[in-house]
Amino acid sequence: MFHLDLHTVGSLSSFTYTADAIRRHGAIASVELSHSGQYAGTYLTDKDKKRGLAQWGPSAGVRPDGLEVKELTEEKITDIGRSCRG
């Protein structure tokens, strides 16, 4: 499985290379969007999953590795939606 990340410098060339290879073989690309839940944002840069900018989950708790997870409340979801709409 390959992971292409828009936040990684130079990733556009990886997307272009991948898309060209797919087309060259007569196939059609598809994208799967997923969320890594309480591990989102940590697995590529922090192999031990000990740090994180802010780990959010459906409820507050502690991951098996001891990292605190904050509850993503409906109010916070609404705030995120508002900020995305501009």
Give a verbal description of the structure:
The chain has helices spanning 11-24, 74-85; strands at residues 56-57, 61-62, 68-71. With 86 residues, the protein is α+β, with helices and mostly antiparallel strands. It folds into two domains: 1-33, no CATH class; 36-86, no CATH class. It has a three-stranded mixed β-sheet with strand order 1-3-2, with no helix packed on it. A hairpin with a 5-residue loop joins strand 2 (61-62) and strand 3. It starts with 10 loop residues before the first helix and ends with a helix.
What characteristics describe this protein?
86 residues; three-stranded mixed β-sheet; 2 domains; alpha+beta
- Total helical elements: 2
Shape: elongated
Structural class: alpha+beta
How do the strands of the widest beta sheet line up side by side?
A: 1-3-2
* Assembly context of the chains: single chain
Rg to the nearest angstrom? 17 Å
Low-pLDDT parts are none
Average pLDDT over all residues: 77
Terminal CA distance reads 34 Å
Whole-number count of domains = 2
Assign a percent range to the helix content: 25-40%
Measured by DSSP, the beta-strand proportion falls in 5-15%
Order of helices and strands: HEEEH
Task: Tell how many strands the DSSP assignment holds.
Answer: 3
Main sheet makeup: 3 strands, mixed
